[in-house]
Amino acid sequence: ASDLSRVLRGLKHRYNLSNMTVDFDVVKGLSHMLRDSDWKVTVTTLVTAVKPRAADRRRPRVINIEPGDMRRKHYSLAFDIGTTTVCGQLLDLNRGKAIAQGIDYNGQIRYGADVISRIAYSQKPGGLKRLQQAVVTTINKIIGELLTQSRVNIRHIGHLSLAGNTTMIQLLLGLDPKYVRLSPYTPAANFIPPVKASSLGIKVADYVYLFTFPLVASYVGGDIISGIVGSGVYQRKNLTLYIDIGTNGEVVIGNSDWMVVASCSAGPAFEGGGVKHGMVATTGAIEDFAIDPSNLEPVVNTIGGAKPKGICGSGLINITAGLFEAGVINANGKINTNLSTNRVREGGDGYEYVLSWAPETQIGKDIVITEVDIDNLIRAKAALYAGYQTLVKSVGLTMADLEQVVIAGAFGSHIDVEKSITIGLFPDIPRDRFIFIGNGSLLGARIVSFSTDLMDDARRVARMMTNIELSENVDFMNNYVAALFLPHTDASEFPTVSKKLTEGARDKSKRRITV
User: Fold this and answer.
1) Cβ-based neighbour number of residue 489 at 10 Å
2) Which residues contact 408 (CB under 8 A, 6 or more apart)?
3) For labeling, which of 30, 43, 290, 389 is most exposed (least CB within 10 Å)?
4) Is residue 83 within 8 Å of residue 67, measured between CB atoms?
5) Whether the bond into 194 is cis, omega within 30 of 0
6) Mean pLDDT along residues 24-40
7) Kind of pairing, strands 248-254 and 259-265?
8) Which helix (H) or strand (E) holds 420?
């Protein structure tokens, strides 16, 4: 018997694995390895395809053979490739948990803030290659940080699972996204086969394959599929609204029987982009905020309890809501300049409110929120609110019909539902219906790494989704314009917020009379 046939026979005898394919690179050096290790080796297999009939068994692929027993050193990488930020986790597959996590801005930002500008840049000579290399450089930087944190050797990484919107995935894989932008708005492929990560420039072993989630449509990608699978929405009967808050925000309504999805470009504000002191949700980012109504002095809390370094997405939401309730800004997001506080001043970008004085910060200068920052947030929240308002109406339902609202996003861990409703980001419905899951795209990528069966579920979810294009929808544009206000131009959409603001104004009036 040949050396390879002995290995395959051992796999069939010990693990009941048969009908296997083998990567050619595995055969190189196999004869010496088997004899040098006294025929004791560890085999890494990967499921790369599922046969059409459910009754058929999977066909595993042998991708690596190592001398000795290496089973206890079994790791993978999961990534969310966002338009603004890239998040990664190192997973211990034996323990079923993440052991290190990293986040950084997507290096493609220098070529455009959103998917449309990046698609346009990709059409320039050498543009697609530069965009592909930029995101790969970011991924490699995060991988290096994860391995340093965990002290894991790169050769023990077995595979990568990765989720992202349609444009981000095509740019990473070097696929021309030109037709994503042109009617009828089609991706290169909905189901992309696994690809060797090293062929893309990702610094892992040559045998490591990269898995991506299925794509639904031009602007609805694997990140939303990953979130739906990770949150289990597709397994429940509850009528659910799933909102993925990011630069390219996606919304889904449905349950285990049906799903309708749409994408609405919100811009980078929720991830710290387009904000004077914006930053990713990491140590030092202001994520929670309160204000003393008597003297308008702030109380800020940061991720990790460190000195303030900037403002993450959840911090931006909480700060805006707090300033609005305290009367520091009005419904148009403009700062009230007649207040008796040195926190309000005129800066280089117009009027601003000082959150932290320079000596209190890591950066050695005042951290402020400006009217431009607030305007960017209002436009971002208006796009999202209009998106799911249009989607809910399109299926003949109202916000009151929603049994559950699942919020996903990589913008911080302390998003306050009440404050998000105050600015008009979330619908004004009972608060116990809201569930926050953090980065849903990364959540799905992580659990698929632990269970390949869930990748089959991802394919099923992608097939059951009906996509609605909002770019040419008149209702969406009308809803968007109406939402460019705190919380909304239609007060009946936010009854509890209107009541709270009215009571707050009455209390302020009483305090003035008492003084």
Assistant:
1) 13
2) 227, 231, 242, 243, 244, 245, 436, 437, 438, 439, 440, 441, 443
3) 290
4) no
5) no
6) 94
7) antiparallel
8) helix 417-422
Do 407 and 415 contact (CB within 8 A), yes or no?
Answer: yes
**pLDDT digit string (tens) for 257-309?**
999 999 888 888 888 888 999 998 889 999 999 999 999 999 999 999 999 99
Q: For 424-462, how does the pLDDT look when each residue is reduced to its tens digit (9 = 90+)?
A: 999 999 999 999 998 999 999 999 999 878 888 999 999
Q: Which of 112, 65, 79, 365 is nearest to 211 (CA)?
A: 79
In 292-331, where do the E strands start and end?
Answer: 298-302, 310-311
What's the one-letter identity of residue 32?
Answer: H
Three-class SS string for 94-113? CCCEEEEEEEEECHHHHHCC
pLDDT at 508: 62
Is residue 264 within 8 Å of 345, Cβ to Cβ? no
In the prediction, which pLDDT does 503 show? 78
The pLDDT assigned to 506 comes to 64
What is the gyration radius of the CA atoms in the chain, in angstroms? 25
Beta strands per DSSP E along 134-247? 157-164, 195-196, 209-212, 240-245
**Tens-place pLDDT, residues 167-183:** 999 999 999 999 999 88
Alpha carbon distance 396, 41 (integer Å): 60
The pLDDT assigned to 495 comes to 95
CA distance 137 to 163: 17
Q: At 418, list the tokens.
A: 């009440």
Q: How far apart are CA 281 and CA 266, in angstroms?
A: 18
DSSP-assigned letter for residue 399: G
Concatenating the DSSP letter of every residue in 347-390 gives ETTEEEEEEE-GGGSSSSS-EEEEHHHHHHHHHHHHHHHHHHHH
- Quote the CA–CA distance of 339 and 250 in Å, as a whole number: 39
CA gap 421, 425 in Å, rounded: 6
Q: One-letter amino acid identity for 366?
A: D
* Signed CA dihedral, 326, 330, 335, 337: sign only: negative
CA-closest candidate to residue 458, choices 187, 226, 300, 296: 226
**Of the candidates 165, 191, 148, 190, which has an alpha carbon nearest to the alpha carbon of residue 86?**
165
- pLDDT tens by residue, 113-167: 889 999 999 999 999 999 999 999 999 999 999 999 999 999 999 999 999 999 9
Reported as a single tens digit per residue, the pLDDT across 219-272 is 889 999 999 999 999 999 999 999 998 888 889 999 999 999 998 888 888 888
